[in-house]
Please model this.
Amino acid sequence: MKSILAAGLLALASHAGLCSAQTFDPNKAAPQNFDLSKIGTDMKTNTTFSNPVSTENIGDPFMTKYTSAEGQEWYLYTFSTNDNITLKRSRSLTDNWDNAETRVVFKPDATGKDAGQPWSSSIWAPEIHSISGKWYIIFTAAPDADNPPPLQDALCPINCPAVNHRMFVLESTGADPWTSDFPMKSMLNTYDQFAIDGTYFQFKDKLYHIYSCWENAYSAWPANLCITEMSDPWTVKSNLTDRMIISIPDQPWEQVPYGRPIRLATNEGPQQLTNPKTGQNFVIYSAARVNTPYYCLGQLELVGNDPMQYQSWRKHTAGCVFHQNTQAGVYGTGHASFTTSPDGDEHYIVYHAQTTAKPVADLYRTARIQKFDWNEDGTPKFPLAENGPFAVPAGQKALAK
Ligand SMILES: *[C@@H]1O[C@H](CO)[C@@H](O)[C@H](O)[C@H]1NC(C)=O
Ligand SMILES: *[C@@H]1O[C@H](CO)[C@@H](O)[C@H](O)[C@H]1NC(C)=O
Ligand SMILES: *[C@@H]1O[C@H](CO)[C@@H](O)[C@H](O)[C@H]1NC(C)=O
Model:
C-alpha cells in the first residue's frame, strides 16, 4: 500500500514536471524589461489592471487617501527611494504610478551641507499619516549610509551596518498634504538604538510607535517588533524600561535559512490593519529576509486591552499570511500597506515583490496591488500573490475621463 502510493505520487510528480516547463528565467530578471501595456490599469478598457503597477525599483510602498480642499478624493503614495522622500498622487489606485503627479518633500544634501546628520542618508520606509488635522511623515534614516566606523561595527556579534538607523518625523505646514511643506519635526526616541520601519498604531484614543528593533544597542539580529507609547505624533513618552518587544522572529518561517534562529531572522515593516466591521486590530509585518524569496507577511492580532503588553498580542503561528508564488514568478512579497477602493467598499493590499527567486545584491522590487477579503473570524483573508489581470477597484472606472 505504502509503496504503491509512493510510486503513484512519483508518477504524478514527473508528469506534472513534463507538462509545465518553467516559464520564468531568473537569470534574465535584471535589468528588467516591462511590457508597458501590462503595468497597472489596461487603458484600452479601464476595467482591469495587472501587476506591477509601476516599473520603478522601489521598496516599502505606502498608500493612503486624502480629500482635497475642493472635495476630490486622491490616493497618496510614498515609498523608499533611499535618497529623498517622494510623494505621488492619483485619483486612480491602479493606473501606472510612473505617470502620477510627483513631489519630492524631503531631500538631504547627504554629501554636502547635511553630511553626517542623523537623517541624511539611507532613507527608508516613509509613511504619511493624517493625525489630528495635520499630516506626519514618519521615516527611517542613518547618518553614515550604513557604513558605521569599524570600531563600532566590531561591537556587534558579526556586523551591523544599520546600527545607526533611527526614526524621524516631518510635520505638514497645513491640512492638505499635497500643498504643504514638510519641515523636520523630531527624531523619535528609540533610546539611541537601531530602529527602522516605524509606524503609528492607534487604539482607544492612544497613539503608539511600533518599529523594528534589536534587543539592545549592538545585538544586531534578530530584528524584533517593539512598541512605545507616544504623547503626540512626534514624541515618544515611554522610557526604555517601558519599551516592549511584542514579536520576535521565533517561528521557522521568520528565519532565513528556514529555522536558523538568530542571524537574518527578521520582523519588520509593521502596519496597522483594522477590520472595519468587527473592530479587530492587527499588525501585519514582514518576516524572514528582504533580499530573499522567502520575505513574507506575518500577522499579530491585538487580543488584550493594552498594546504595551506582550501577552495582549496573538501571533498567527501557522505560517506567513501572504507569501511568494513561484508559479506566477512573484517572490519576496513584503512590506505592505492597506487602502480601500474609491467607493470605500473593497479592501486592497499594496506590497512590494521581486520577479526573481535569486535576487542580486541590488534587488529590483516593484509595487503591486491586490484585493483582499475577511475571514469569518474577522482576520484578513489575503489572496495568493498574482500578476492579474484583476478587475479594477469598485468606483475607479467612473473616475476615468
Ligand atoms: C529621489 O530619489 C530617487 C531615487 O534615488 C531619484 O530617482 C529621484 O531623482 C530623486 N528625486 C530628486 C528630486 O532628487
Ligand atoms: C519608566 O517609566 C515608568 C512610568 O511609566 C516608571 O514607573 C519607571 O520608574 C520609569 N523607569 C525609569 C528607569 O525611569
Ligand atoms: C481610460 O481612462 C483614461 C484616463 O484615466 C482615458 O484617457 C481613456 O480614454 C480611458 N479609456 C477608455 C476606453 O475609457
Remarks:
- The mean pLDDT is 91.
- The pocket of 2-acetamido-2-deoxy-beta-D-glucopyranose (ligand 3) is lined by residues 43-46, 400-401 (CB under 6 Å).
- Residues 2-19 form the longest helix (18 residues).
